[in-house]
Amino acid sequence: MDSLIPFTTSGALVDCVDRKMLVVLRDGRKLHGVLRSYDQFANLVLEDTVERIYHGNAFAEHWHGLFLIRGENVVLLGEIDLDQEDDIPLRQVDYNVLDPYHKRDIADKKAREDFKARVLYEQKGFCKEGGEGDGY
Hints:
- By secondary structure, the chain is of the alpha+beta class.
- The protein has one helix and six strands, in the order ββββββα.
- The chain is 22% helix and 35% strand.
- It has a six-stranded mixed sheet with strand order 5-1-2-3-4-6.
């Protein structure tokens, strides 16, 4: 059957349907869920989706359920190996415990990126074009 599907970027996703996937978005969010559908623009439908946040050696999950993702927001898409998923050396904590630390990490990263952009603009003559999430 695979030989009947023309090879396109979105056509390469046919083998990923009904598998647990990790999706990293342009804004940095990391989603885990089962890929149920996609279209020619690589828009994705994830089922049983959780957003996972990390800080140090801990992670937390926030349940989203059914999730529709616009294809242009996907930076990375990868299959999760179910045999090795539970072997991660991280401990799971409650989302409300980890969320303040995660938000602080995001704010620190934004401050570093703003400082870098200002130095490149003022000292190296780089332009200020680009927007949120363009740096992946």
